[in-house]
Amino acid sequence: MLDVDPRAASEVALLSYESLSAAARLTKPFLLVHGANCALPEQAERHFAVVPTHDKLHRRWTWGAS
User: Fold this and answer.
1) C-alpha distance from residue 9 to each of 2, 20, 53 (Å)
2) Rounded average pLDDT over 1-19
């Protein structure tokens, strides 16, 4: 049995997973919820940028804001 830290293994899987090409092929409405303090915020912004539509609604909400 290999002595591998499961956190390291999951990070390798996460960082090697390619999903931008799938985002670029979206044809249905979708909702992306992500935060600047979440994991890989730049990756979420790249995914949002490649979705093929001209009518994107981009909103920023802040917890506790009215």
Assistant:
1) 11, 21, 35
2) 69
Instruction: Please give the Cα distance from 38 to 35 (Å, whole number).
Output: 5
- Quick one: which of 22, 63, 27 has its CA closest to 46? 22
- For the chain, the helix, strand and coil percentages under 3-state DSSP, each to the nearest 5: 40, 0, 60
Q: What is the largest CA-CA distance in the chain?
A: 53
Contact 30, 55 (CB under 8 A): no
| Confidence band, pLDDT 50/70/90 cuts, at residue 40 | confident
Give the span between the Cα atoms of 55 and 60, in whole angstroms. 16
Q: Identify the helix (H) or strand (E) that includes residue 23.
A: helix 20-23
